[in-house]
Task: structure prediction
Amino acid sequence: MSSLDSAKYPVEFEVNGEKQTIRVRAADILLYTLRDNLGLTGSKSGCDNGDCGACTILVEGFPIKSCLMLTVEVDGKQMTTIEGLRNSPVQNAFVKNQAFQCGYCTPGFIVNCEGLRNKLPHADKETIRVWLESNICRCTSYEEIRNAVKDVFSLEK
Amino acid sequence: MIPFDFEYYKPTSVQLAVKWFHFLQKKGKNPLYFAGGTEIITWARQNSIHPGAVVDLKSIPECNAMEMRNDKLIIGACVTLSALSAANSFPLLSETAQGIADQTARNQITLGGNICGNIYYRESVLPLLLANSRIVIAGMNGIREASIRDIFLRHLRLGNGEFLVKTITDRSYLSLPFVHYKKRQIGNVGYPLVTVAAFKKDSQIHTAYSGVCSFPFRSAQIDRELNDSSIPLSDRIVQAIDYLPAPLLNNAEGSAPYRKFVLKQTMADAVHTLESR
Result:
């Protein structure tokens, strides 16, 4: 069986281009492994329930809510967190458009937008709307966020 | 965090999954099959379930299939809702799946997980009920195939240690004229007050429902009443609602009387639209 009876499981993955090998409980949640074991605290804990999107990271290029994924599930996979998107076009567009207030939700929005850019580089307004519905901004900076994303996709504001 | 430990197994074949599940069960581990995991993680975090082991099905090739073979659309139980929507091989299923949770969550939620879950709504089963899809189930006695209409009765009736491997849908159902309405209390993301999926086949309208009762369903009596063109549509709907299989759901999404009001309107929209096609 590809499993161990002991409490800890070895997991290998790549995060932001760096290979990592760690040992975790099967019940460990990916968000907290990133934050507590690897010090990648850019992904935020919001609802812990898959509703708010503050914990969004990319797994194999797809946006995933890391509060709803076990760490053992990412064995052998590639991940990108907000720390891996420094000076990216999406981050720059958010800065240019001041698409944040408190900033707590911002990493989730930027990562989600990066995932959309990778998967659907010619996304239309409707697709952008659908994807952005995965994230909540309690400060309601939605208009500025929309403008930043439109910049990324070179759409008219 | 999840406040207890469990073991994790990732079999690469249907046979291994079944074998390990039964082995773990014999050891008293209270195992669960695991796919997208969103519901299991949520319940475990809330300390509402306590599996001693999970058997992750995502590495089993049959569970990840999505292909047309011999005029049948095959979709594996571990195909995510976003993947099957993007492929759009079965437009009614794609549209129904697009209404579940949000885009990022749909990158994790699987077809099998949605059908076999414990939440009330499980809307992805609606198109499969309408299309008389067949499902492939694995268990200790091997592989069996069944009509989803025979086996999904309020929930998927799986035997001990069985799991859903894939669904099979005849091509003739994939391109029928259809409607899909998901009515929520507010916004575009969230659980439904009422979801109606319907299509028209051989001049007859077929409907299936979620959010109305505490389980998704399809009813031959309701369809018979809705298709009785000898009486006005409003009367048909009143008679159809008499055949609801259980009391109307009454919860935070909406009261039973409000759901009934929304259901009537949505039935009228569905029938009116499909009658004109």
Residues 85-152 of chain A form a domain with the DNA polymerase; domain 1 fold (CATH 1.10.150.120). Residues 14 and 71 of chain A are 12 Å apart (CA to CA).
